[in-house]
Each structure stands twice: as C-alpha cells, then as structure tokens.
Recover the amino acids of this structure.
C-alpha cells in the first residue's frame, strides 16, 4: 500500500511538491488541502490582471483541481482549511468550508505549504471596504471590478516594495491618479539608493506621485462610509481606492501550534532537505525559512521562484533515501519592470554587506546592453559589490530601460558559484550585436571594479558628491569633460567645463590643491581625464561614478 | 521650407545630439529636421535639447529600436 501524503496549501510550493511526489511515488495517495477557492494561481501575475495586461481571470489561474486530478492523479480539496495538526497521531483536522463539517485526514508524510500573508497593521480605517491587499485572485478581482465600473479616480498605494510598485504602475496604466507612500526614504528597499532613486525618477516621469519618508496613519471615510482619504502626519491624500502593500509575513500559526520549530526569521525552520524538527513533517515555500548563501545565515526571502524549488526538493526527500536532493540556500535574486524601466538585484546590497561586517568595495558602471549601433540599444547602470580583501563578488544590481535580467542572472550564477571579480571579468559570454557587446556590462563593470580595487581608479558616488556639495565643502573642484553639446543639456551646478581634448592644455585652470572630481557621461572620459591629470602631478583626482547617467539631481 | 534628414544611427551619445546641433546650425527657421538614432539615450536627450534651444519637437517615435525625431527649427 502506498503512503499517504498530505500537503497543506495549494498555490506554488504546495502544488509543486504534490505533483512531484506523485510522479516519484505513483502508488501514494496525495491530497492537497487549500482553504481558498483557487489553487495553483500565479500570484506574481495579479498586478497585471489588475492592469488589464492580463485580460481574463483564467489566464492567472494555472490549473484547476480537476486538471490536477486528471493529469497528475492528486486530490486537491479547495475550501478545506486545516485547523489542527497532531504530529503524534499523524493526522490533520480539516474544516470543509462548503459543508461546515470537520474531517480527519491521517498522513504518513506532511508538507506545510501555507505560504505568507500580507502584513496588515491596526491602522484606523484599514478595514474600510475600499482598502485592499493583493495576494489572492479574489483581491485582484475586487479591485478590477471597481476599476471596470469606473469607481476609481484616485488611488493610494502604501509600500514601495515590488508588489506595491507593480500595483501602482498598473493603476496608473488604467488612468488612475495614483500616489505611492513609502516609509523609508527610497522605493525598492533592498536596492541601494543610487539605483532606487533612478527608478523613482522614472516612476514620477510616468505620472506616479511618489512620497517617501512618510507613513499612512489612518484612512477616513465620507458620510456614507466610503473611503475618502489616506492620512499621514503631514498630509491628507484624497482617494477612492487604497492598496496596502507593506510586506508579507509567513503563515506559521498552524505549524507552530503543532510544535514545529520556527527559525530566527519567524518562518518555519527547515534544513536543506526541507525537513522540520518533527519527523515526517516538511515545510516549503513562503512559510519556510531559507539560508542566505553568501552569509550562511538564516534568511526569509519569500519568492515564487524559490517556492517551486523547495516544493520539488521536499518531494524528492519524502522517502528518506540516500540520494537526497538539497537546496543549500538562495542568493536573493529579484527583478521588476515598472513602465519602461527594469531593476534587478542579486546577492547582498552594499548596505546589507556593510551590516554583515564586510569591508566592501563597489562601483557604478553604465554600459550598453547591445552594440550601440544596433537598434534598440540602451545604456544600463550596473552596480557591483565585492569584498575588498578576497575580491569575492557579494552582490550586483542593474537598472535601465534595456536588457537587465541577463546581467543579473549572470551575476546570480557567478555569486552562487563563489566567483571573484577577476572571474567575472574573464567570463566567456555570448556576443553578437543584437544580443550584447564585445565587453558585456558584467565584464565592463568587473574591470572597472578591478581598477578601483587595485588603486588605478578613485571613484565617488553621486550621493556622496551631492552630500559633500550640500554641506558646502570648499575643497572640491568639479570638472565636466564632456563636449559643449552635452554640457548644454545640463551639468552639475558649479562645475567647470573643460573638454577632454583640452584637459592637458588647460590644466592650469584647475585648482590642484583641491580634490578634483571629473565628470562625463558614463565615467570613461572622466577616467581618461583623471589619468592625464595624475600624470601632470595632480595629487587628488576622483571620477564621478556612473557619470551624468547616474546623476539624479538638479543640473544647470 | 526644407526637410533635412540627419542620419545619426549607430552613433553613441552624444553623437546624435552633436549631429543635430550641426544640422540645426545650417538650417533656416521653419525647416524640418528628421533625425534617426539607435542609441536609446537619444530619447531623453532630444527632448532636453529642444527645451533648451527652443526648437519644436513635432514628434518622437520608436520604430523597432530606431528613434525618429521630427523637429521644427525655431
Ligand atoms: C502581487 C504579487 C506579485 C509577486 N511577484 C513575484 C515575482 O515577480 N517573482 C517571484 O518570485 N515571486 C513573486 N511573488 C511571490 C510569490 O507569489 C510567492 O512567493 C508564492 O506565491 C509563494 O507560494 P507558496 O505556495 O509558498 O505560498 P502562497 O502562494 O502564499 O500559498 C499558500 C496557500 O496556502 C493556503 N493555506 C494557508 N493556510 C492554510 C490552511 N490552514 N489550510 C489550507 N490552506 C491553507 C493559503 O490559502 C494559500 O492559498 C509575488 C506575490 C504577489 C502577491
């Protein structure tokens, strides 16, 4: 007789685990319990369903219980909520929400795939009917319906993470006047500010109002009880729809009550085989903890990509054989598209790396995603982060309107395999003009970082330069070496203009007692100018990293 | 009024703007300049350039990666 496998939760991780387990063990009885009405849906697609990029509900719901039964032979019971797990008796108490009956499901093996839930703090007015979270298809249905009926003119989205931003983008695309409010002083927490600010500028250029460093403290309704405005300590934002997206929390109550151990991140603690502290009990997906591969520390990085892998690994380890499959950890790779801009990150950000105690070197390098003469080529901005002593690559972030997911995936692969900056610089990557450049963005960025690590190049980030200018530091001499036509479009206020071709002849015009900051479009001409000035004995020359491409502040 | 075609395809920034500058210098008021460029950065640059110089950007289209701007010289 085959064993009984019960899976609690039927979206990404749960259905993946169940399907793989049944393939491995055709004689097992596999049951998936899902408290909601839908299973196996693409949570990641919901913002686009709201935005009508995805036209119909059926496109986001990947599989139905009938299909899973017919194709894979697994039993999926929707509207079945697991209420209690008895790990001694090995049984799950389940409420059938359709009939109101309680049933007992005995198991030999149990997998928690209970996922995560939006974090909803007790803000006054948050329970108004027009304030939503976006997690399930039903949430998106409800928002869509309001949009389709023309009931939404102004919206507020709370939270500047990728879910909040994707929802905000789609509301703008549907013609809604949308304001995004983020508590931190940047959008995209997890990205370093140099890149996040470029994304924010792009959002604003496309009509989204972005407010950072402020928080919604309440929502207020009109006389008939409909949402009227979102309130912060400094302002009142009129709106008829609000979306709360300030992060998610792992769904662990059921597991914790059953004696399953939670980790330091408050998600279910599992080893690399997805085993919990209790024999025959596994946990996968957003409800479970991961290991951050670079630091080796527990981390909770709830992503659909990871959920699927965890589901598969658990399924392969159910029979406790010798050839166990393992997920050692994740590096934390994410990518997002917002209007025309794309942003991706992998590994540690510079600020995370510093918090972890690394001595960090980093660099900002704009590079073409394809041959510059090939139609559609774009400059993208790469940030590379490495450990100063070992040169190990710790992280990478890329932002731009061109192809950014390729460099991110190359970096994710390299970081997972423990690459050093030197390894990146020598990677044999695919090149023909429609695809990339002879020195692809990752390779170029690695070379510039090596120039920094070996003392050939002194760089300054736009944020640091701005802060020093704002502080009124008099020890700085900014020299823009671009052509007249470029400078006409704007230069850093107060910068001197000497084109690269004349920098040696006109070196006398530059105060050699000051720190000279050389500025161009991407950093290359600045570097060339720096070498020329160094050769002329200038003691302190620095290049503005990323050039004007990465300069998000006012120009003159 | 003349229409002048400026081929700035294949040029990296600031190439297209430099070419546009030259062409604008030689053009008469009311002339139309049609500039084609393949560098994605041209999109922003041409908008900024027109604002700065007071020339009128009639249209800016992205034709499968070829950016085509029509500008009326002021
Ligand atoms: C708007 C949005 C956009 C996203 N975009 C991306 C993206 O671009 N890339 C990416 O990698 N990830 C993305 N994600 C994250 C991704 O959707 C999740 O990581 C993924 O859904 C996790 O799958 P899961 O199966 O672990 O958990 P969930 O999807 O949370 O599913 C868990 C299920 O368990 C059920 N359940 C819980 N408790 C019980 C119980 N007691 N009894 C029965 N059933 C129960 C719940 O009802 C739920 O249906 C996005 C998420 C959202 C919301």
């Amino acid at each position: 007789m085959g064993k009984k496998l019960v899976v609690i939760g039927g979206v990404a991780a749960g259905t993946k685990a169940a399907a793989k387990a049944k393939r491995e063990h055709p004689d097992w009885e596999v049951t998936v319990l899902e408290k909601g009405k839908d299973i196996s849906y693409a949570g990641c697609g919901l913002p686009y369903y709201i935005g009508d990029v995805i036209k119909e509900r059926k496109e986001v719901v990947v599989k139905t219980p009938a299909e899973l039964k017919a194709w894979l032979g697994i039993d999926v019971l929707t509207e079945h909520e697991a209420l209690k797990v008895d790990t001694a008796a090995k049984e799950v108490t389940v409420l059938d929400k359709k009939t109101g009956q309680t049933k007992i499901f005995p198991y030999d093996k149990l997998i928690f795939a209970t996922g995560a839930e939006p974090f909803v703090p007790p803000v006054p007015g948050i329970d108004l009917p027009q304030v939503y979270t976006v997690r399930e298809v039903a949430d998106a249905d409800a928002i869509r319906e309001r949009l389709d009926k023309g009931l939404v003119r102004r919206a507020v989205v709370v939270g500047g993470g990728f879910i909040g931003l994707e929802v905000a983008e789609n509301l703008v695309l549907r013609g809604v006047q949308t304001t995004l409010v983020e508590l931190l002083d940047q959008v995209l927490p997890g990205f370093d500010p140099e890149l996040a600010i470029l994304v924010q500028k792009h959002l604003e250029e496309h009509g989204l109002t972005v407010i950072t460093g402020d928080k919604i403290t309440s929502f207020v309704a009109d006389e008939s009880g409909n949402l009227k405005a979102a309130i912060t300590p400094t302002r009142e934002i009129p709106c008829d729809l609000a979306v709360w997206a300030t992060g998610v929390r792992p769904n662990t109550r059921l597991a914790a009550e059953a004696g399953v151990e939670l980790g330091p991140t408050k998600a279910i603690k599992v080893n690399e085989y997805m085993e919990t502290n209790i024999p025959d009990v596994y946990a996968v997906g957003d409800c479970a903890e991961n290991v951050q591969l670079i630091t080796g520390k527990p981390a909770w990085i709830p992503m659909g990509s990871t959920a699927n892998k965890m589901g598969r690994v658990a399924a392969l380890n159910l029979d406790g054989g010798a050839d166990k499959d393992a997920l050692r950890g994740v590096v934390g790779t994410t990518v997002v598209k917002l209007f025309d801009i794309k942003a991706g990150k992998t590994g540690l950000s510079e600020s995370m790396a510093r918090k972890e105690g690394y001595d960090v070197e980093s660099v900002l390098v704009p590079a073409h995603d394809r041959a510059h003469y090939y139609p559609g080529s774009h400059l993208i901005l790469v940030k590379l982060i490495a450990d100063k002593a070992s040169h190990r690559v710790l992280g990478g972030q890329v932002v731009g309107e061109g192809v950014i997911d390729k460099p991110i995936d190359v970096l994710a692969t390299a970081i997972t395999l423990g690459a050093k900056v030197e390894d990146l610089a020598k990677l044999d990557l695919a090149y023909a003009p429609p695809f990339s450049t002879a020195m692809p963005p990752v390779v170029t960025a690695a070379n510039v970082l090596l120039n920094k690590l070996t003392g050939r190049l002194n760089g300054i980030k736009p944020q640091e330069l701005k802060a020093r200018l704002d502080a009124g530091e008099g020890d700085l001499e900014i020299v823009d070496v671009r052509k007249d036509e470029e400078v006409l479009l704007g230069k850093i206020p107060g910068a001197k203009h000497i084109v690269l071709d004349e920098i040696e002849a006109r070196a006398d015009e530059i105060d050699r007692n000051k720190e000279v900051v050389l500025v161009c479009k991407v950093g290359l001409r600045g570097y060339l100018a720096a070498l020329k000035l160094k050769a002329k004995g200038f003691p302190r020359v620095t290049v503005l990293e990323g050039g004007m491409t990465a300069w998000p502040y006012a120009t003159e | 009024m003349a229409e002048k075609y400026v081929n700035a395809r294949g040029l990296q920034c600031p190439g297209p703007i430099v070419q546009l500058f030259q062409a604008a210098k030689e053009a008469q008021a009311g002339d139309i300049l049609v500039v084609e460029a393949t560098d994605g950065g041209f999109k922003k640059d041409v908008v900024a350039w027109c604002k700065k110089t007071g020339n009128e950007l009639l249209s800016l289209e992205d034709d499968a990666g070829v950016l085509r701007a029509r500008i009326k010289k002021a």
